Amino acid sequence: MTHRIDSTFSNLKAKDQAAFVAYMMGGDPDHATSMALMSAMPGAGVDIIELGIPFTDPMADGPVIEDAGIRARASGTKLSTVIDMAREFRAGNDTTPIIVMGYCNPVHAMGYAAFAGAAKEAGIDGAIIVDLPPEEDGELRAAFEKHDLALIRLATPTTDEARLPKVVAGTNGFVYYVSMTGITGAAMSKPGAIKDQVSKVREASGLPVVVGFGVKTPKRAKEIAKDADGVVVGTAIVKALHEDGLDSALMLIRSLADAAHS
Amino acid sequence: MGNQDNIPLPDENGRFGSFGGRYVAETLMPPILELEQAYEDAKADPAFQAEFEDFLEHYVGRPSPLYFAERLTEHASENNPKKGGGAAKIYFKREELNHTGAHKINNCMGQILLAKRMGKTRIIAETGAGQHGVATATVAARFGLECIVYMGAVDIVRQKPNVFRMRLLGAEVRAVHSGTATLKDAMNEALRDWVTNVGDTFYCIGTVAGPHPYPAMVRDFQCVIGRETKEQILEREGRLPDAIVACIGGGSNAMGIFHPFIDDKDVRLIGVEAAGHGIETGMHAASLTGGAPGVLHGNRTYLLQDDEGQINDAHSISAGLDYPGIGPEHAYLHDIGRAEYVSATDDEALEAFQLCGKLEGILPALESSHAIPQTIKVAQELGSDGLVVINISGRGDKDIFTIADALGEHIGAGTEG
User: Is the minimum CB–CB distance between B175 and chain A shorter than 8 Å?
Assistant: First the structure.
């Protein structure tokens, strides 16, 4: 529900803080570990959880997230079990927004209306479907509106001023600004340069703007938090969980969250 | 270019009925809209069309012949299960005689002329069998453009001669190890490259799939096959054929020969998908016969997938057909019943390959070999008054190592290793 997203941003604004948005792949490497990470995220400073839906052909992702999806699918994760994770999380937390993130085909296979209904019922607040641009998301948008769910759009460096109004029209919750052209986990985006872009997107949408792609370190998270309403980290967290385990991933999350909130 | 043949599809959203569209990440939307505009401008520019046709004639070697395959026709007649039923005359549209040995270069010539017109300096492509990669590398070399070809690691092993050819042509071949390490993964990787290098890069897609405008643009560049076929058969036989048969992976050679005949309702259009080990085994690449509608690589079309929308592995002995989807216009022609879609197994294709070599002195590509059994069957059904055209979309030289392996013979550069 968008009210969880809206109140998260208004609470942070009252404290003059940016949101820390953390991405994790649902079911990586298995349900229990992934559930433990998700449940511990709010306590480690995560304001909004982006929960990845694994897909065989993740065209916008780099190798770290692609491999996480392979591990998740190997342990039986699919769209329906990612929705189950959200439901399980909601049993103990009714405030932290959950945005599911993935590709169109699993949602298309479930059916747009059925997906919206199931997401709502499980306590999911919104979705980012990477390969559903405004030109193609009409059916899902209608189903989401019916259930008061946020369909989060992506704005990118290639989205010019002529196109931006179309990208932000009819969106709610927040807008995700992809800070660079490329795939997730690629080389870090350059400091500066994003401030103007973020203001343009904020002005066009009237919504909070979070910035992601290429953010790996607390230092960079802190820089971005100065210019944006939120900062997203994904690949670095997925990598820490896989290489160093749950505790290390949570330590990284805590340091990123502190930097974003400072 | 094929505009005079075009029925008014796709619509302005790139849709063929409910298929097609532009399912890409936002980063790629502006470049595909720019590409669509550039293509529309080029299509309307007589100078562009003249340059394209000039290169097709003098560089590619068009028109390709339409050849009466007399001995294959006799074979079909002698083996007609209906005694004395005869067989329709079988004509080969000889796309394998094009420069680089397949129909793929028609499209590459069109797209790279367009890339040049748009001021792009870097060409990327995906390839399965390597035919599209070789054609792209060839034309990129001709125009002095940097060329990077993504190819699944599995395909690199089974199509070694083409990998070496691409390198000789100055292209960089990048092995893709992710997923099934075949054509679909090469396409994922090419899309990742494009999303990273949108400014100077032109993505030369090799088949009638991907986001709009690719399915329409590739079709238009390939329609020269069908237009020539129509002229040639009218000249040779004074009438249109009863049926046209072509193999289908993504479906560019089939769409190229089908499309100019779409309004000729009496001409049966028959596409042959790869049945691999057999449709019933699940080890196949027949998206229409054994798949369901879904969204992959920028378009909505029939896909091999499970109930949860995860993409299933395709299987075919032919690397060029080893893809879990099909062009959206084929999905549309299938649903409206204008074209028929059947399938042929690995074994049937292997047998047809050998038959064609022995009877006609022509080694067709393994891809094209898939269309031969159905051609024979249709020729037998039609009987001696009929006319059938098959698109021999490529030549089989690249496949000899795969075929030697399948036949248990050792000829040196085998596919293991």
Answer: no
Q: Is the dihedral of CA B111, B116, B120, B124 positive or negative?
A: positive
Q: Does the pTM of the predicted model rise above 0.90?
A: yes
A79 touches chain B (CB under 8 A): yes
pLDDT digit string, tens, across residues A46-105: 999 999 999 999 999 999 999 999 999 999 999 999 999 999 999 999 999 999 999 999
Q: What is the pLDDT of residues B16-38, one digit of tens each?
A: 999 999 999 999 999 999 999 99
The Cα B171–Cα B29 span in angstroms is 27
Instruction: Please give the DSSP secondary-structure letter assigned to residue B57.
Output: I
- 10 Å Cβ neighbour count for A31? 18
Phi-psi region of B274 (alpha: psi -120 to 50; beta: other; left: phi over 0): beta
DSSP conformation class of A78: -
Residues facing residue A210 across a β-bridge: A176, A230
- Flag whether the ipTM exceeds 0.90: yes
Closest listed residue to residue A220, CA positions, set A187, A183, A244, A181? A187
Is B310 within 8 Å of A63 when comparing Cβ atoms?
A: no
Q: What is the CATH number of the domain that holds A48?
A: 3.20.20.70
B25 close to A (CB below 8 A): yes
Neighbouring C-beta atoms of residue B47, cutoff 10 Å: 9
B188 touches chain A (CB under 8 A): yes
Distance CA B365, CA B118 (A): 33
pLDDT higher than threshold 80 for residue A210: yes
Give the CB-side neighbour count of residue B56, counting CA atoms within 13 A. Answer: 24
Decide: helix, strand or coil at residue A118: helix
Is the CB of B307 inside 8 Å of chain A's CB atoms? yes
B175: which chain A residues are within 8 Å (Cβ-Cβ)? none
* Separation of alpha carbons B16 and B300, rounded Å: 10
C-alpha Rg value of chain B to the nearest Å = 20
Mapped onto helix, strand or coil, the DSSP state of residue A114 is helix
Nearest-Å Rg of the Cα atoms of chain A is 17
DSSP state of B286: -
Q: Which residues of chain B have a CB within 8 Å of the CB of A60? A: 25, 27, 192, 195
Cβ neighbours of B85 (radius 10 Å): 15
| Tens-place pLDDT, residues B297-323 | 999 999 999 999 999 999 999 988 989
Q: Which of these is catalytic: B104, B120, B377, B398?
A: B104
Closest chain B residue by Cα to residue A62: B192
Subunit contact A59:B27, Cβ cutoff 8 A: no
Cβ pair A79:B297 closer than 8 A: no
The domain tally of chain A equals 1
Identity (one letter) of the amino acid at B49? Q
- The burial of B67, by beta-carbon neighbours within 10 Å (0-12 exposed, 13-18 middle, 19 or more buried), is given as middle
* Interval A136-182: pLDDT, tens: 999 999 999 999 999 999 999 899 889 999 999 978 899 999 988 88
How close, in Å, is residue B407 to chain A by CA atoms? 33
Domain that holds residue A185: 2-261
Would strands A98-102 and A126-129 be described as parallel, antiparallel, or unpaired?
parallel
